[in-house]
Amino acid sequence: MNLNELSAREITEGIKSRTFKTKDVVQASLACVDKTNKDLNTYLTVLHDDALRQAEEIDKKVEEKRPLGPLAGVPVAIKDNIMVRKVRTTCASKILGNYKAPYDAFVTERLRAADAVFIGKTNMDEFAMGSSTEFSAFGVTRNPWEKSRIPGGSSGGSAVAVAARTVPLSLGSDTGGSIRQPAGLCGVLGMKPTYGRVSRYGLVAFASSLDQIGPFSHSVEDMAVMLNIISGKDLRDSTSVDKAVPNFSDELAKPIKGLKVGLVKEYSIGGLDKEVEKAVKDTAAVLKKLGAEIKEISLPNSDYALAVYYIIAPSEASSNLARFDGMRYGFRNAKAANLIEQYGFNRDDGFGPEVKRRIMIGTYALSSGYYDAYYAKAQKVRTLIKNDFDQAFKEVDLILTPVSPTPAFKIGEKSDDPLTMYLSDIFTIPSNLAGIPGISVPCGFNSQGLPIGAQFYANHFQDGLLIRVAQSYLKETLWNKKTPKL
Ligand code: GLN
Hints:
Amidase signature (AS) enzymes, 38% helix
């Protein structure tokens, strides 16, 4: 039995039935990390000792017949902008290069209580700004399907951690597509829950009105369990919503017969790769075969989503990142002669070029005299985009789109051209602006063997519908069963 091939459910069952020990599972996971990390650069921190210690504790619980959590013994990987107590949390930035988290994020607290085992912290674009993981201060992560290509981003490491079978489950964050886009490019599942479903306490903020934490997995079943564990009200994040959390696993057996699925008229854009377009069409055909009704819908303000996002996200980022000045923690330049220089040098040396670009754009958009023309205007158009979705969900239950316009591109291909890079999130950004949930589901491979992803949207707090459609679709097609050869 290859322990790295097991789903989270199979691991927990095996541990409970004493078929194997948590220690075996964790050792297998760490061995897989050690074998692949040099090539893929998936993990920034590997928790060899901590993970084995956690494994021992769980095995002791089994021994003493104490109750076990729903993810007992399951190795998980965490994006490096989410705090794990006493563990380095760098956001892939030099400015936080040696920063240790003083507390657990809400989601890590929940996972710990569920008896999951933290294997390590994953690589990402610096402060989650990017679509390729090339903007990490610690080197690019490589796509396990083809190592000369990017894994997507910004949660590239968390997507690869699952795709390369180092762990069955990982967490990422999604501000404009950072979970769904790398999931699509790496052939795994990735989900951004409804805004407010999951607390962001302990997530290093990028753009607070857009950020959500969510899971990556191979199995829809595992994803449902993870989603239940991390959902719910948390008083430490006032945007988390006090709304009953349904049992997402109940969705797994429900049919999609009779559900209405919308295809967006405005999403047939020029730059859409032909093979991606075909894979999404084929996805619609499978849904139809399973009894769903497919119809065309319109999101008339789609054209503005990217522009609106690139005002709102940098504006919020410029404010959120003001706290990183290297004075109380983080990177400090040794050559500054006075206090003003100290602030300037710390930030100039500490941040990479993409982060600086965002801070400058955001500061400009928020500055007096420009605020109304840019920021206030963008917020108004954001409302129009949200209204489009409200309208669409009167006609359909789900919306089907590509995840990104092309499969994984080559390392270096877009890193000097911010605008082309920004376009890779054209289909994912609208849901962050509207606050609705989205899931990326593997839906095939192109002629070069690169994975393609299909995305589903549902209305606010209909996260369960995404679990349902993903399960029905993948049970039929098995696209999530493919593994890259490493
Ligand atoms: N790629 C987008 C950006 O660069 C989205 C990033 C994200 O979702 N964190 O801002």
